[in-house]
Automatic annotation (TrEMBL):
<keyword id="KW-0548">Nucleotidyltransferase</keyword>
<keyword id="KW-0639">Primosome</keyword>
<keyword id="KW-0235">DNA replication</keyword>
<dbReference type="GO" id="GO:0005658">
    <property type="term" value="C:alpha DNA polymerase:primase complex"/>
</dbReference>
<dbReference type="GO" id="GO:0046872">
    <property type="term" value="F:metal ion binding"/>
</dbReference>
<comment type="similarity">
    <text>Belongs to the eukaryotic-type primase small subunit family.</text>
</comment>
<dbReference type="GO" id="GO:0003899">
    <property type="term" value="F:DNA-directed RNA polymerase activity"/>
</dbReference>
<keyword id="KW-0240">DNA-directed RNA polymerase</keyword>
<keyword id="KW-0804">Transcription</keyword>
<dbReference type="InterPro" id="IPR002755">
    <property type="entry name" value="DNA_primase_S"/>
</dbReference>
<protein>
    <recommendedName>
        <fullName>DNA primase</fullName>
        <ecNumber>2.7.7.-</ecNumber>
    </recommendedName>
</protein>
<dbReference type="GO" id="GO:0006269">
    <property type="term" value="P:DNA replication, synthesis of primer"/>
</dbReference>
<keyword id="KW-0808">Transferase</keyword>
<keyword id="KW-0479">Metal-binding</keyword>
<dbReference type="Pfam" id="PF01896">
    <property type="entry name" value="DNA_primase_S"/>
</dbReference>
<dbReference type="InterPro" id="IPR014052">
    <property type="entry name" value="DNA_primase_ssu_euk/arc"/>
</dbReference>
């Protein structure tokens, strides 16, 4: 539980409220006034709050001790300012716009985490599943859908969020959001999955070329599968672990061949080389999806579809505080915060400040915070540049006409 004094000090000294305003207004001050904010304090939950600007938002967060929220969330843009909803006729107050959002939680990987971590707990090995989620999802958003404005944020607890702010996606209906989310979601529905949880990809979804074994998405997933499961969790040296892998192979002959390869793995052997041999064995049989099903079921992003599909779904704001951990919900760089070369990528203990450290002037935490604010500032600046470019192109188009 984070203390009220620490929260107030943090909001006053560190919250980049003006950058949050610049982001959520998208160059239109009126647009910001119609945005919903929600606040949580103890057992009280207050929705449909709205503000004129970033200064007014910060004033609400710090105005008096009893009202300082433990966390605050962002909702959609309505037809009228949410705080004025009771002053208009029924049916006038309706949601009209919001970013397309993704929510990836480590607890949704419980069925395949063989490192000993469960629920909200994580370690350096299984946390890489979150980074795989970032790398794969960001590729899909940019290279397949062509979206440009993506803000990735550590949730402060057990997951990672993404806000996609392109104008074309903000205006999507719930049906449009569902179409994007369903394309990105490869897993069986819970009714088709005996565990009742996400656990196996639906092989019917693997026919799309974006997910073939030659695709960029599969290459990214293969990299993480070897790093996390073959090397990190060493699943080929433990029968309780590799049984999960074997369960995806429904051909009894191939399963026996793979089992023999695993049994032949000596203590000094390189497990990744054995995995390469397994891939060769499975690929001998044409038109099977065993390798795809194994790799993607273990590491492909497990999205919370309800968060993505709903226009009026709330999501924690960047730079709010997670009440359980005290971590700041900091932005991530989808290119620099994933494993690359000697870098293991973003890990909360190493690169995320806690509110207590910040208000007590811990220099290392302050530097972490500054670097994360810079990522956010760059994101906001890029938004402004794109908006200016769009206006210029629109002006040129009108002149040509």
């Amino acid at each position: 539980m984070v203390g009220t004094n620490d929260l107030r000090s943090y909001y006053q000294k560190f919250l980049p409220s003006e950058q949050i305003y610049s982001w959520l207004s998208y160059g239109d001050p009126v647009y910001f006034t119609k945005r919903e904010f929600a606040f949580t304090r103890d057992e009280f939950f207050s929705r449909y709050q709205s503000f004129k600007n970033g200064s007014e938002l910060k004033e609400r967060l710090t105005r008096n001790e009893r009202d300082i929220p433990e966390r605050f969330e962002i909702g959609c843009v309505y037809s009228v300012p949410p705080s004025q909803q009771h002053s208009v006729s029924p049916g006038v107050f309706v949601p009209i716009s919001k970013e397309f959002v993704l929510d990836i939680d480590i607890s949704d990987y419980n069925d395949i985490r063989m490192c000993g971590c469960k629920e909200s707990n994580y370690c350096r090995v299984c946390w890489k599943l979150m980074l795989c989620g970032v790398e794969v999802s960001d590729y899909i958003l940019t290279s397949i859908f062509g979206f440009k404005n993506r803000l990735w944020v550590f949730s402060g607890g057990r997951g990672i969020h993404c806000w996609v702010g392109d104008e074309s996606v903000r205006s999507l209906t719930n049906e449009g959001r569902s179409a994007v989310a369903e394309f990105m979601h490869l897993y069986q529905s819970s009714k088709d999955n005996n565990s009742g949880r996400q656990g196996k990809v639906d092989t019917n979804n693997l026919s799309h070329p974006s997910f073939s074994t030659d695709s960029k998405i599969f290459q990214i997933c293969q990299k993480y599968f070897v790093d996390v499961f073959i090397d990190g969790m060493d699943i080929l040296r433990d029968s309780d672990k590799y049984e999960k892998l074997l369960s995806f192979i429904t051909d009894s002959t191939l399963k026996k061949q793979v089992h023999n390869l695993i049994d032949g793995l000596d203590e000094d052997d390189d497990a990744s080389e054995t995995w390469s041999e397994i891939v060769k064995v499975l690929n001998v049989r044409k038109n099977n999806t065993f390798v795809q099903a194994i790799v993607l079921s273990f590491v492909y992003p497990r999205l919370d579809l309800n968060v993505s599909k709903g226009l009026n779904h709330l999501l924690k704001s960047p730079f709010c505080i997670h009440p359980r951990t005290g971590y700041v919900c900091v932005p991530l760089d989808p290119k620099k915060d994933v494993p690359k070369g000697d870098s293991q990528g973003f890990y909360p203990e190493d690169q995320c400040p806690k509110v207590g450290e910040l208000v007590n002037n811990n220099q290392e935490a302050t530097k972490m915070m500054e670097s994360r604010v810079e990522i956010f500032k760059k994101f906001v600046l890029d938004l402004k540049k794109q908006k200016s470019q769009e206006k210029l192109e629109e002006s040129d188009s009108m002149l040509q006409f």
